[in-house]
Amino acid sequence: MREIFREYAIQQGVVLKRVKNDHVRHTYKCLGDGCPWSVHGSHMIDRITIMIKTLVDEHECHRVYTNKEAKVNWIDSMFENPVKINLSVSVKVISDLLRENYKVSVDIQRLYKGMRSYNVFDFNEAMDEVRAINHTAKS
């Protein structure tokens, strides 16, 4: 349920506080000044389905563009395929896409940290490619 509300907070541009967050119950409130938005939910007996029991779906706060919920793992999940296709994509492009598509501004250091995970050299994969080339050359 955390991932759901992380995505909601980023899309709506709000900052949410976890009031209760255990394995059974989840309660979130908006940290905006005087904002009445809140939600309370709990897991059903199957431990997969979540039932929203209370929802006040009115925001009276302003949008936040520097959202702390846009963490490295979230950024990686949003841009995994484009970056793997083009490893030379710059951090500035990713920053612009985040600002354009999600209306969130992320500091450059966090973007570099996310990009570092894609630039890892996979030795086993490279050796498989070398073996395949050698095998076709011998044939």
UniProtKB/TrEMBL annotation:
InterPro entries noted in UniProt: Transposase_MuDR
Residue ranges of every copy of the Transposase MuDR plant domain listed in the record: 1-52
Protein name: Transposase MuDR plant domain-containing protein
Taxonomic lineage of the native organism: Eukaryota, Viridiplantae, Streptophyta, Embryophyta, Tracheophyta
